[in-house]
Every structure is written in C-alpha cells, then in structure tokens.
Amino acid sequence: MTILKATIQSGRLEIVAPPEWPDGTQVEIYPFTHASNGTSDSLSAQEIATTLTAMDRCQPLEITAAEQAAW
C-alpha cells in the first residue's frame, strides 16, 4: 500500500501522486487525527489483531556475519 500525504489549502486537497499512477486512478482518503498527546489515535482491537496476524506471517531476518559487518 502506498501512503500519500496531503494538505488542505483553501478547502481543497493538495497532494502529489506517484507519476506512474494514471489519470482517473481512484483513491480513498481518511482524515489523520491526533490525540491530545500529539500521537495518532489508538488502533481498534480488530486493527491490532490484523496487524499482529500479519506480523506473525513475516519471516525472520537472517543475515550473515559479512552482511552484518557491511551494515
């Protein structure tokens, strides 16, 4: 999923889309809200469960000593 950021200017969204997206590509836009501490609102229980399930499907990262040294 590609995340795009936009700013509202004079009641319109100012957004830069990836150049490979053709004209007419439809997108869904949801407002990004902030909690009082400046962070985004909490995830719902379903969103947390979905995220954890996806994370469990990830394969562990295994790198060689040479690859680690290159980092």
Write a structural description.
The protein has 71 residues and is α+β, with helices and mostly antiparallel strands. 25% of the residues lie in helices and 11% in strands. It contains two helices and two strands. Strands 1-2 form a two-stranded antiparallel sheet. Strand 1 (6-9) and strand 2 form a beta hairpin. The two termini are 27 Å apart. The model has no long low-confidence stretch (mean pLDDT 83).
Layout of secondary structure:
Elements: E1 6-9, E2 12-15, H1 45-56, H2 65-70
Antiparallel strand pairs: 1-2
What structural class do the secondary elements suggest? alpha+beta
Q: How much helicity do the residues have?
A: 25-40%
Percent strand equals: 5-15%
Residue runs with pLDDT of under 50 for 5 or more positions: none
CA radius of gyration: 19 Å
Q: Any key phrases for this structure?
A:
2 helices; 2 strands; about 10% strand
Task: Briefly say what this structure is.
The protein is α+β, with helices and mostly antiparallel strands. The chain has helices at about 45-55, 65-70, and strands spanning about 5-10, 10-15.
